[in-house]
Design goal:
It contains eleven helices and eight strands. The protein is α/β, with parallel strands linked by helices. The chain folds into two domains: about 1-40; about 90-280, TIM Barrel. Strands 1, 2, 3, 6, 7 and 8 form a six-stranded parallel beta sheet that branches. Strands 4-5 form a two-stranded parallel sheet. Helix 1 runs antiparallel to helix 2 (about 20-40) and helix 4 runs parallel beside helix 11 (about 260-275). Bound molecules: zinc ion. Zinc ion binds near residues 101, 147, 151 and 189.
Length: about 290
């Protein structure tokens, strides 16, 4: 049917082209050629390309899924190892490096050191206007975790259940908008002892669990949370004294503190020399409550 129409059309075109001026005939030829071309494109040729494009789109869509299922498997395996360590089936040891309250300018240096040493860490971050660094944390294989939006212990975060959860949700959305990554791991500002001091630990833990979150404390530190402590002894001494003989260690550090960043290379080297595996935290970890 179409071919017939086209043929009639072509005859008319031929007649017209004889009669009409060169310009008109050329224009009509173009219209005719274009119709033929469209017909050609709408057949097999064009369909194959659409299929290819659709396949590519599906492939790219599934990349996210395959990354997240690989990540899940990875964290499940870490959990299995933790269980084996705790039951005595494995004599390996695990160290989780954690950095709180960032990101700061120093975080770039921390990330450079971790990259150089090829070890992953966990960053309990706040909401700050340094968006490129959140993406870098995720891209370089570290765990990005919630530490509330503002961390204002004295002025509001622990005022009520709602004020705390508002800051958790706010940061969660903020990080998701920047990185596309939804965190479900948190550390209470000041630790769960601070939440306890405000009489909110159990209520907040329940709320967090309902949202799929787990919280992580620490088992040792570089003492960089307060200057008073560092007057007693150095970051390195704090590390050596508190991070002793632990099968599974969670080391608390702050990426605003230059003294910690200065000894970070040595800490990592020391942990490696002692045979520790340095790994990133997830809410599957036995250390996540
Ligand atoms: Zn903090």
């Amino acid at each position: 049917m179409e071919y017939g129409n086209n043929r009639n059309y072509a005859i008319i075109v031929v007649i017209l082209s004889v009669l009409a001026s060169t310009v008109i005939s050329l224009q009509l030829k173009i219209i005719y050629d274009n119709r033929q071309l469209k017909k050609y494109l709408s057949d097999d040729f064009f369909q194959i390309n659409t299929e290819e494009i659709e396949n590519k789109i599906e492939e790219y869509t599934n990349i996210d899924k395959s990354i997240s299922s690989t990540k899940e498997e990875y964290f499940n395996n870490i959990r299995k190892l933790e269980d084996m360590i705790l039951s005595g089936e494995s004599d390996k040891r695990i160290a989780y490096l954690t950095f709180d309250d960032g990101p700061y300018k120093l975080t770039y240096r921390v990330l450079d050191i971790l990259k150089e040493e090829k070890v992953p860490a966990t960053f309990f971050v706040l909401g700050k206007d340094t968006s490129d660094i959140y993406m870098r944390i995720v891209r370089e294989g570290h765990t990005l975790a919630n530490h509330t939006m503002y961390h204002n212990i004295g002025k509001g975060v622990y005022r009520s259940k709602d004020s705390f959860m508002e800051q958790v949700n706010k940061l969660e959305n903020y990080l998701y908008d920047i990185t596309g990554y939804k965190t479900s791991l948190i550390r209470f500002p000041g630790g769960s002892g601070t939440a306890q001091a405000f009489g909110l630990k159990d209520t907040l833990t329940n709320e967090l669990h309902n949202k799929g979150y787990k919280y992580v404390e620490w088992t040792c530190e570089t003492g960089d949370g307060s200057d008073k402590r560092l007057q007693q002894k150095s970051e390195w001494e704090w590390y050596k004294d508190t991070c002793k003989d632990q099968k599974i260690m969670v080391l608390l550090m702050h990426d605003y503190h230059e003294g910690t960043v200065d000894v970070l290379h040595n800490i990592i080297k020391d942990l490696k020399d002692q045979g520790y595996l340095i790994l990133p935290l997830s809410n599957k970890s036995v250390m996540a409550k």
